[in-house]
Amino acid sequence: MSQYQTAGANARLRLFALLDAQGVPAAEADDLVAALEAGAVAGAQSEVVELDGMAPASQGARFADGWDEGVMAVSEALVGIADRDWARRSGRSAGSSELAVHIADVRERERADLVRLEAFIRETVLPRTRPNTTERRRVLEALGEASGLCTAQTRNADGDVVVCTLDAGHYDPDDKPPFRNGKPGGWHKADASIWNDLGAACIPHAAL
């Protein structure tokens, strides 16, 4: 039964979230959910009542009496639960309060996960990247620390956008590199790509 209880609680919170997103007032949302819950219990009660007089005849009259008494006890308990759920409506706003607590808990766990992820990237991933590489740039971008890098772009032979991996302010169009030896001079560089701002496929660097 625990799996149904968990699924029911999650569905309840989801329903409140959807109603809240549609602008349904908290009191009205509570009334709707309370009606659904009371109706579900009432449906279960109606099924239980149908078991009255259904004891196996082979078990004897004494067993049948106990069976019917058990059916009556469960039926009355379900009626009480339905009455309680119905009475909890009318602006109690418990659902909204539950939703707020749930959202706060989810956000707290998300923040904790982000802190752990950032620590892993900073302590494990970043040290394994080489300076002035696209891989390192992407890691710095994920950490929000790429603002000090050049923003010039070009397209390689495959049509992929390539972004410079050198520090901002490095560009000097007159400092031409000896091509293909990996030394960019004052031009832009990203891994094996070297370019200046004059190419048709290039986006010049932004002044920082």
Description:
The protein is mainly alpha-helical and 208 residues long. The chain has helices at 2-21, 26-49, 61-87, 94-125, 134-143, and strands at residues 153-155, 161-163, 188-190, 193-195. Helix 1 packs antiparallel against helix 2 (26-49), helix 1 (2-21) packs across helix 4 and helix 2 packs antiparallel against helix 3 (61-87). It is rod-shaped and about 105 Å long. The model has no long low-confidence stretch (mean pLDDT 76).
Strand order of the largest sheet: 1-2
Counting DSSP H or I runs of 4 or more residues, the number of helices is 5
What fraction, in percent, of the residue positions are helical? 40-55%
How would a textbook summarize the main sheet?
Answer: 2 strands, antiparallel
The gross shape turns out to be rod-shaped
Q: Give the SSE string.
A: HHHHHEEEE
Going by helix content, strand content and strand pairing, the class is mainly alpha
Percent strand equals 5-15%
User: What is the rounded Rg?
Assistant: 34 Å
As residue ranges, the low-confidence spans are none
Descriptors for this entry?
two-stranded antiparallel ribbon, two-stranded antiparallel sheet, mainly alpha, 6% strand, single chain
Give the helix/strand layout.
Layout: H1 2-21, H2 26-49, H3 61-87, H4 94-125, H5 134-143, E1 153-155, E2 161-163, E3 188-190, E4 193-195
Antiparallel strand pairs: 1-2, 3-4
Helix pairs in contact: 1-2, 1-4, 2-3
